[in-house]
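Incident log, entry 3
Record: Fc fragment of IgE receptor Ia (250 residues)
Problem: checksum mismatch between cached and fresh output.
Input:
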Amino acid sequence: MPIPMGGPALLWMALLLCHTSKPTVSLNPPWNRILKDDTVTLICHENNSLEVNSAVWTHNNIRLEETSSRLNIVKARIQDSGEYRCQNKDSIPSEPVYLGVFAGWLLLQASAEVVTEGESFHIRCHGWRNQNVSKVTYYRNGIALKYWYDSIDMSITNVTVRDGGRYFCTGCIRRQNHTSDPLNITVKKDSPGQSGHQSKYSWLQFLIPVLVAILFAVDTGLFVLTQQQLALLLKTKRTRKGRKLDPEKS
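Fresh output:
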């Protein structure tokens, strides 16, 4: 009696689906532009947003020694700039996260450099070594947007294409005026076709775990059925041998 081969095949399919999970990298503080001597922590998350137990970290495709879920960069240097990825033993590498380390007294930081119409973003005028910045003014395309005596983050909500452009800030540190380098922020038009395309496939992240569970259940059922068939086959063979050896029936 042939043994069903569906079980191992389904199990391999389940394993392949599990291995398609991809972790994500977040930053704490959440800025991907920092100044020299700043400190930032990169955190490797699983799909469920929990931190992984252990991780392999790479910087510009070079493997790092850190193996925990958190990669701490203390007193950042210019050479710490570049792309960072993480992965654990059960995943493929994450999408790259770019970290830029700059030299200067002032740096304009943004929560996002590319946003879609209707979304929001924040900008911040950051001083070297976290020194206090006063008399802060934010500019877009050379036009002053807001002035604060103290350094306060500026939020731009429900953005439109007109909110895109070159942003920079000015401020005073130790009674000296400083100006940050400009930062381009792009605002994309909200495309109904694009959002529909994303929602069309967003259900896959929920379908895959369910499919894996179904495949595992089917594989288990086939395994039990195969065991029962083998037991029945062995019992039948023993019965036939017993009849041949019985002298009264020979």
